[in-house]
Amino acid sequence: MVVIGIIAGYFALMNLIGFAMMGIDKHKAVKKLWRIPEYTFFVVALIGGSIGTIVGMRVFRHKTRHWYFVYGLPAILVLQVALVLFVANSPLQFSIM
Length: 97
What we know:
Elements: H1 2-30, H2 38-59, H3 67-70, H4 72-89
Helix pairs in contact: 1-2, 2-4
């Protein structure tokens, strides 16, 4: 049970980071300041922050004209969901101890 809590906390943190990064980068874009590199958004999405990054993109209306964000971030999310479903339904048994 503790492991599930740690995993859930990790994904919540990564999604919060992805959401915040979109807001920070949008603010920096408006102010013409140094920006967050685009690959950083994809790295955060790949390591578990895809939902937060997508929601941030929509909420802040940021990066919505870039096709690789509009299609790439949801594609990452679909692959992550497929991976979770595959692992959850696999015949392999995973145990902590």
